[in-house]
Amino acid sequence: MTPARRLGTAAHLAAGLGVLGAAGYAFVAVVGHVFHGPADAGALSALISLYMLVNIIGPGVFAALEQETSRAVSSAAARGEPLRPVARRAAVLALWSFAALVAVVLVAWPLVLGRVLEWRPGLFVALLVAIAGSGAVYWTRGLLGGQQRFTAYARTLYVEGAVRLLPCLALLAFALDEPAGYGFAFAVGSAVAALSVWPAVKLPATDVTTSPPGMGRSLLWLVGAIALSQLVANLAPVVVTYRLPDDLVAAAVFGSTFVLARVPLFLFAPVQAVLLPQVTRAAAMGRHDELTSRLWQVLGLVAGLGVVGVAGCVWLGPWAAEQLFNTAYRPSVGTLALLGAATLVMMLALVVQPTLLALARQRTVTIGWMAGSVVFLVVLVVGPEPISAALVAQLVGPLVVLAVLLVGVLRALRLPAAGVGASPATGRR
Fold first, then answer.
1. Model confidence over 124-164: pLDDT tens digits?
2. Please, are residues 317 and 262 in contact by the beta-carbon 8 Å criterion?
3. Distances from the Cα of 268 to the Cα of 97, 235, 305, angstroms
4. CA distance 186 to 372
5. How is the chain split into domains, by residue range?
6. Sign of the alpha-carbon dihedral angle for 314, 54, 301, 342
7. Its topology with respect to the membrane (predicted)?
8. CA–CA separation, 11 and 23 (whole Å)
9. CA 35 – CA 407 distance, rounded (Å)
């Protein structure tokens, strides 16, 4: 892929993610306008918590499925192996993941989840719908990304965003104030997106029926890593809401501000989607020099985008939170600066991750997120003031992750390259 084509592909994916991101922010903005004031603070906090939980539970597991499917498809294509057995194995893993997530949600409902969602059965069902849709759309994106078919990949983003956005605007236009309606409008987008590109999924027939080795084990490591990354990225507002039952207005303002500071992550996502299949092919061919140069190039690009994002948070953040999300009061510049810096560190850690995956170092990735998550949770839960603790935890946790991943990738790149023909499970650490 030429540099111009890579730039065009990234721009196309960025536009799709822009639509999807706008739908998420529109959801928060719409519910902020519909459910405002002390009487509706509980419903607003529950809907924002649903938004966060969908980003933790669904993509937290199924983004791992997408990345492992993309890696396995890219590696099989580089080795001239058939793709259909990879797709079939990934579909089975998606079904098992869905079943496990449903079991976890059922257990968590009476323990803590019910309180977070205000014991609203409609929001509980919406969460299950979102999980099922996520399984379908992330499996599809893994197949498309691994084949570098990014036009169809981007189409799933456009459709998912549109299907989330339009129903919310319709509910707002009809002045409906039922929280479950907004929850379902947000939840169904993923399933519709997967259905929209199903005819475009092309898997040549093959006589090979043997499943590729190592996908299940790799997925388990990745599920742990990405679930923890989503937890670090999204859990803070949920915990703040849980710890501030007597000040839901402050919790809602923090939740809206937190969502606003995540805007740069949507600019980063297409970089990761394009980077993973390319570095996987380079690793399969034994081209470590290419891996090293591409890693430093992308780190520089992401660092530049992140600095712009932090500046945007500081300059426009307080106004945007009040005017776009209808917060009860303006968040402080310091709060937005810390959240913006935390987002930058998250982006840097996530851009190192694909290189480790390409080098079959899934375990190193998981260890990094485990270490960062432990630090994050300790600070988040033990800190005496919930919002201050959340701000500190959101920065120090990702810093620990970034340090571990950088050490891991530098060590892996110093080892001899395996080259074409090596087993994809070889060298996994």
1. 898 999 999 989 899 999 898 888 888 888 888 889 888 88
2. no
3. 26, 20, 8
4. 30
5. 3-202+211-413
6. positive
7. Multi-pass membrane protein
8. 18
9. 46
- Write out the two tokens for 254: 């923090």
* Contact status, residue 196 vs residue 163, Cβ threshold 8 Å: no
Report which residue type is found at 11.
A
Residue with tokens 């500046």: 311
pLDDT for 396 beyond 90: yes
CA atoms of 298 and 256, how far apart (whole Å):
29
Contact 373, 383 (CB under 8 A): no
Please name the residue that has the structure tokens 């997530």: 101
Residue 67 vs residues 53, 140, 320: alpha-carbon distances, Å:
20, 11, 33
The C-alpha atoms of residue 174 and residue 215 are separated, in whole angstroms, by: 47
Tokens coding 208: 């090979």
> How do residues 297-318 score in pLDDT, each as one tens digit?
778 877 887 788 788 878 877 7
Closest to 89 measured CA to CA, from 203, 229, 200, 192: 203
Residue whose token pair is 């065009």? 8
Token code pair at residue 150: 């990014």
DSSP state, residue 35: S
